[in-house]
Each structure stands twice: as structure tokens, then as C-alpha cells.
Amino acid sequence: MSNEIDVGTLLADQLERLLAKELTREVRFALEERGELPGTLWREAEEMGTTLALAVESAGGLGLTWAQAEPVIRKLGQHAVPAPLAETMVGAWAAAAAGMAIPRGSFALAAAKFVLDDQGLVSGWDGLVPWAGTADALLLIAERHDRAYLCLIDPALSDCQPLTTYARVPSAQLRLKLVRPTAFAAAPPILQRCGLLAPIATLRSVQIAGVLAHVLDLCVEYANNRVQFGKPIGKFQAIQHLLAELAGHVAAAQVAGLYACRRIDSGAAEEGAAVAKTRAGIAATRGAAIAHQVFGAIGVTDEHELHYYTRRLWQWRAEGGSEHLWSERLGQQVLAAGGAALWPFLTGTESV
Q1: What is the pTM of this model?
Q2: Domain ranges, residue 66
Q3: What b/e sequence results for 303-327 when a residue is b if at least 16 CB atoms lie within 10 Å of its CB, and e otherwise?
Q4: Is residue 192 part of a domain?
Q5: How many CB atoms lie within 10 A of CB 162?
Q6: Are residues 92 and 183 in the same domain?
Q7: Are residues 255 and 157 in the same domain?
Q8: What are the two backbone dihedrals, phi and then psi, of residue 168, each rounded to the nearest 5 degrees?
């Protein structure tokens, strides 16, 4: 176990060096203005095993658990990586868990559930699928006779209507009508109930924690260097209170994301996602507001890097279900379990 944890930490450290080298302003500009994915970054990240980190070893992956891979996912969030590396990690995990061969290339993940008819054709709609227009494969859950199937779809056979989002990554409204999957298999037990929604929510929660940590670093650096009225603005009590509040949100989001990863590992993906996405959504909303308060007008200019990260916060809080959707589900879980189970649930001594 400790060796595997070290592998996850080592991979996160390697990824940090790669991202620090490759993620230039020009790379981000190329994605947001021309839709060009960073090919060198993708190849090197793939070669070091990032995309297969969660896949079982028998499928060619590293075999990390979600908790062990959490630092890797958080690192991808911290740098707001302009490529579907995190989505491909989850897609490879799901495909391997379903016993499917993992195709090379990138995945786009649909959170909505589709329909699989008796002829093996998929139909349905998802209002927002990041990377749907550029990924090599689409992965989704389709239901037939109350049973869920994991389906691999050729993007060329789908109707993808491009969408403009806060994050400015290639996204689309996805519509399928009687499309034959490239491959499909019975979804693993953890995906039978909630589909891909809970794993996507967990993914976004961990990424939110990562990008919030980077936003905090930017704010602290700016507050220490920006001089107003003869001293750094970080010396003013009002700014110190804002930074302390932001640090609290960073810590809470990170703990919630790790909790959700552990719940996936224990087979309770929906419970963990409800806690993490609710907390991460609150942190994203308040964290972005604090950051722009600290930076003032300069934070919204295209020349400054802050908006690259706060726009991801605004986008990710909606993807995989908003905090409002998940807080309602969390409340339903607690009510369904009864009053006697509330305290054990809050203290972590018993699952709802």
C-alpha cells in the first residue's frame, strides 16, 4: 500500500515538472483562441502513465486507487491543464473496470444517462460535454431494461453542437440518435446506480481544490508585492481576513475531495460525491470572489493569469452536478437513513 501511495506522489511530482515547463501563456492562448490542444504536453503526460493511473494493472494501468491518485488529479486542477487528461484518467478507469479494452487517445465523458435499445443502438442527450468536439472517444452510460452499460462512442457519429463556456475549453451539446457503439459492456457495480455523474463530480471537486490552492498562492504573492498607501496591501487587516477565509476554503475543498476519492474506493461513489461537490462548489464561488477582491481590476484583464483559474472554478462548479443538486441528494441520503444514523454519519463512524 505505501509503495502505491509513493507511486501516486511520484507521478504528481513528475507531472508538476512537466506542467511547469510546457504550460506557457502561448499554449493557453492557442487553446482558448484557436482550439489547439498542446500535443507535446499530452504525449509526455501519456508516456509517464498519467492517463492510465487509475486503470488496473491487468489493463496496462498503474493500478492506483482514487485516493492514491488524488494528488495527480489535484495537480491537473492546480494548473488548469488545457487538455482532457483528467477525463481520460477516469475514462480508462471505467473502461478497465467494465472489462473493456482501453483505446489510445483522449476521452470525453458524458454525465447524463442515455438509452440502449434492444438492437444495441444508443440514443439520448447531454447539455454539456467538455472536450466532446476534440476527444478521440466519447464514454457514457446507457440503460437498457434497468441495467446500465458503459458505451464507447465514435465522436464522428455524434451530433455535437459547440458551446461557449466560462472555461473556454472545447465543449458541446451532445445528441445521439440510434448510434451503434464502438464497444459496450455491462457497467461495473459502482456505476450501475449513479452512472458517470458521481465520478465526474468527484473529479471536479478535486480539481477545484487544486485550482483554489493556486489561486491562494497568486493572492498571497500579489498581496505581499502590491504597495498601496506606502505598504503592501497584505499588511491591511481586511486583506488578511480575506486571505485567511480563502485558505479555509482551500483546506475544506481538499479534504472533501480526498473523502470522495476514498468513498469511490469503498464502493460508495454517490455519498462521497454529494459531500465533496457541495463543499467544493461553495468554495469555488466564494474563492473566486475573494481572489478578484484582492486583485481588483487587474484580475479581470486578459493580460493577467488570474482569470484562467477563476473561470475554471466557475465552470467546474456546474459540471458533474452543481452544489445545489448534490446538497439536495445529500439531504435525501440523511433523511432516508433516519435520525439515529445522523451523528455516526457526521463523525465518520458509519456510512449513511
Answers
A1: 0.94
A2: 1-98
A3: eeebbbbbbbbebbbbbbbebebbb
A4: no
A5: 12
A6: no
A7: no
A8: 60, 25
